[in-house]
Amino acid sequence: MPFKIIVTVKQVPDTQQITGEAMKPDGTVNRAALPAIVNPEDLNALEEAIKIKIKYGGHITVISMGPQKATEALKECYYRGADDVILISDSAFAGADTLATSFTLKCAIDKIGEYDLILCGRQAIDGDTAQVGPQLAEKLKINQLTFISQIIDITEGPENRMIVKRSTENGYEILKSALPVLLTITNNANKPRSSSVKRLLSFKNMVFRKENTPFEETGLDPKYLSASEHFKVWDIESLGVDKSLCGLQGSPTRVKKIKDVVLTAAGTKQISGSEEDISNLIRELREEHIIG
Ligand SMILES: Cc1cc2nc3c(=O)[nH]c(=O)nc-3n(C[C@H](O)[C@H](O)[C@H](O)COP(=O)(O)OP(=O)(O)OC[C@H]3O[C@@H](n4cnc5c(N)ncnc54)[C@H](O)[C@@H]3O)c2cc1C
Question: What is the pTM of this model?
Fold first, then answer.
């Protein structure tokens, strides 16, 4: 049974490549100083989508809200096996917190229409909140299963259900949900496949096209006419949404202050291995709610 799958992808600065220029003097991230990559757990989400497509049949649409540069992340998803890639981009979407981000993604998903599954990464490595997936499910009024490390089975039709595994601190849980459902996928779910070299070479110069923009304006060779239908940009007009609910305007989060925290050895304490010292340490950690 073919499944209609939507994968959400965020382009993030590669936080593994932190250099001296990574932060601006005002304490915000200097995105220009860091290479941009696809958020790692979004590649795990995409890989699950590809595995489902191979096993059961399906169609994968990848969406990303971000600046024009995020087309690079979307192209990478296309090279890996996505069918359609859509950039949601407009100056009105800039400065979005998780609430405005999930609102805008929800509007894009409403525009896509039907779906059986939405796959998100568990967490972005820059914002790090892990809120966007759950907020999106709330806004779409569909079930959500978070922190998923394995998709065990899916069936559509009268028995319409999905069975997944969630890893927990002490073991795992097996969960079942009706479709449609939103899953957030963790990095131990799979090892994402590499890009197809054939797709990369064929589509590396592909241009994303705004709705209602004639193909001729892309400057692409006419042989790309049908392929270009799979690379789209939607702006605020295409989504037809209220500007006041998007971007900075629609974001109640205010960052008042950002502080560098430098951990020094000043607070270290050495204890002997005696029972008394260990008991005292456990008591202290309990009192400070460091351990339960
Ligand atoms: C303290 C703080 C200050 C911030 N300040 C600013 C700021 O000033 N300006 C600014 O622009 N941003 C700012 N942000 C970033 C912004 O709020 C978040 O990046 C954004 O809302 C997404 O949240 P997240 O990165 O925590 O994603 P998470 O909730 O951790 O992401 C979970 C999953 O949701 C999906 N997802 C998340 N974002 C997108 C997206 N854009 N498109 C598609 N899928 C997505 C992905 O699948 C991702 O794996 C700030 C964040 C924090 C924590």
Answer: 0.88
